[in-house]
Structure formats: structure tokens, C-alpha cells
Input
Amino acid sequence: MTTNTHWQALRERYVPKGVGNMLQAYAERAENAQIWDVEGNAYLDFAGGIGVLNVGHRHPKVVAAVQQQLDKLMHTCFHVMPYAPYVELAKRLSEAAPGPSLKQTLLVNTGAEAVENAIKIARAATGRSGVVAFSGAFHGRTLMGMALTGKMAPYKQGFGPFPAEVYRVPYPNPYHGCSEEDSLTALHTLFKMDIDPKRVAALIIEPVQGEGGFYAATPSFMQSLRQLCDQHGILLIVDEVQSGFARTGKLFAIEHAGIEPDLMTVAKSLAGGMPLAGVIGKASLMNVPEPGALGSTYGGNPLSCAAALAVLDVIEEEHLLERAEQVGELIESGFTTLAKDFAAISHIRRLGAMAAMELLDAEGRPDAALAKDLTQKAASKGLLLLSCGVYANTIRVLVPLTATDQQIQQGMGIIGESLAELFAC
Ligand SMILES: Cc1ncc(COP(=O)(O)O)c(C=O)c1O
Output
């Protein structure tokens, strides 16, 4: 048996520190909502590989689909010789996307790559260059991804200059002092002072901010954005990388708002642990770039496509949209019970199972140190828990939707024990 210490020493020697790690324990195997490290220690997984494992680790259907595909074909490059699973998945995603317009789907490898391509398509389709993004947004670590991301440290520091023509307005977040009205006023001001809306190709928004803190834009705000975009011929890009695939109780979080986006970026839970991402959009826009302008060597790899087709089946067969609501209720009631004992807990919120709470210090200010201590303490007790947020004081839960009620309650128990120990010292 190797040890965590052994791998940590090698990791420090050979992997740059910029690739951050939350833990110094090394995962060896996993099943549904549990991971075991190389020393045999078990962890309950409330992180889900940062929103990748809505159907759990190694879902048997996903594993079987990948194994079957492995026996047939691993790679041709879709640009060289196309294959059925890519087309089949493009059909399923295009048909599942909200709204009446005919859709098409481009498959790529990562969320950031999907975002890059959505901007490329929007610019090509509109002949305009400006892009508007929101404060607190996270859209990836590529250059355009960073330009669109609305948080400096650690994502952007030292990496500029960034692509031009990116403008930012505040994301509506009444808890931290920005109302929907404030956000809309900022947009109007932007169009008056900084860029003519006729030069704006797209506005990109997460319907529920992920890294930014699990804040959900209300349906009325999304509807106002839709109207504003229509008024000025601006494309609305909805980034569903973290909120998609049943997490919020709908296949896509934007369905809660009842509007049709022009383009949608997807990744993470799409392929249940295999690397895959995509842009789903109105065919009239998706079809504008010429052959060869879109794609990549590995984009829509056959193994990942097979996994994604199985994930879509699992979401349907195991009723994960309904299950997300139950999981969300369990988390919310767990947090609410804990809040009775710990005054630091504030602003419990959720959309489906995209659930979070905030931690505050004795003066009522965001307490990032406590959030960090809690994730570390929880890990030492066998629970993987993530923090997030512009103030780094939000505790978010991305537990597989296939976890049992008992596992979720067990995780809540560990959060309670961890907080009790932290406040006792
Ligand atoms: C909303 C959102 N967009 C884009 C990304 C980037 O995805 P990736 O890390 O796969 O490049 C993320 C990753 O967390 C995300 O949450």
C-alpha cells in the first residue's frame, strides 16, 4: 500500500502549486457518493468533483456504456471520420434544450472551451464584438474565460492583459446589497456610457452562480435580460456548466425562468465523470461559422459521448429532477437545524439541490477563515465539502443526487460536529 504522504511528497516535487489541492489525501477508488483514499480511508463526497457527479461516481450504467464503447472505438477525431455517438448526443441535447427554436450542438472538452466557442459563435453570428458579463461570474481559466470571470484572486491575478471588449455589470444579489433593479440600471448605464448596445454581441450569465456563491438570478431578472437582449439584438448566452443536468430540479436551471436562451454552455455533470462539454444553441446561429472554424482534436470523444447518453438515461430513469428537490430539502433542513446552534450560519438558500449557506463572524461580516476551517475539519472527519463565493464564506453542497438520505444526513452530522469543535477551541 502507498501512503498519502508518499504521493504528497511527489506531488510537491513534480506538480506546480498553481494547480491547487483542497486535500493531501489521494483518491484511489469511488462509488456513488463515497471515495476511498490510497490508505483505505472513506470520504463522503459532498463536492461531486465540483458538480460533475450528479449521477454519482461510476454509475453502473455509465461504466457499462463506456466499457461497451471502449470495445468498439476510442478515437477517430470527429473532423476526420465522424461517428454515431456524437450525432446521437447532439440530437438529444438539441432536443432537450428549452425553447421552440431549432437547435444544434457543438461538443468540446471543457467548460472553458464551451464558453470560448459560445463567444466565437455569438461574434460570428452578430458581426459584433462586445460581450457583457457579471461580477462574481466564473467562466473558466482560458484567456476569454478569465476575461469574463468576475473575481480577481486567484483566477486572474498576473495573467493579463485579457481580450478586449468585455464589460461587466453587477450580478443581482440582494443579500450583498445589489437588487435586480440595481443590476438592470447598471446595464442601462453601461449602454449609455461605455458601449453602444448595437456593438454588443452577447451577454453571458450563470442562471445560478457557481464559484461566485450559489446565488440564483430570479425568473423576473432573466426575463428582463431576455427582453433587453431582444430589444438590442444581443444574444443571451446562459452558462449551465455548473447548474445543468438536474442539479436545480430541472435539466437546465434556465428552465425555471421560462425563457429561451440563444446559446447555452454545458459541461461537468453532462458525462458523469468523463471530460465533455458543449454549446447548444439556435441552429440559425450555430450554423454561421464555416467548416473547420469550430471543434478540436478530442471534442466529443466517443467514450465521453457514450457516457453522456447514459447520464441522460439515468436522469430520466431514476427521476433525478424530482430527487434533486428532495435532496435540496434535506440539505436545507439540515442547515436550518444547524443554524439554531450556530449563529455564524446565515442566508441558507437553494434552487433544487444547488444549496448553500453563508458563514459570518461575530460582527456579521463574511467569515472566509471559518469556511476554510470547516472544509478542512470536515475532511478530517471524512466529508468532502466545498466553499465558494466572492467572499469565500459560502459552503455549497454538490452531493450526487443518487446519494441516499442517510448519507446526506450523515454529512450534515459531520458539518455539525466540525462546527462544534471549531467553536469549542
Ligand atoms: C459556470 C462555469 N462555467 C465554466 C466553468 C469552466 O469549466 P471547466 O473547468 O470545465 O473549464 C466552470 C467551472 O467551474 C463553471 O462553473
Notes: The pocket of pyridoxal-5'-phosphate is lined by residues 50, 110-112, 115, 138-140, 206, 210-211, 239, 241-242, 267 (CB under 6 Å). Residues 79 and 292 are 8 Å apart (CA to CA).
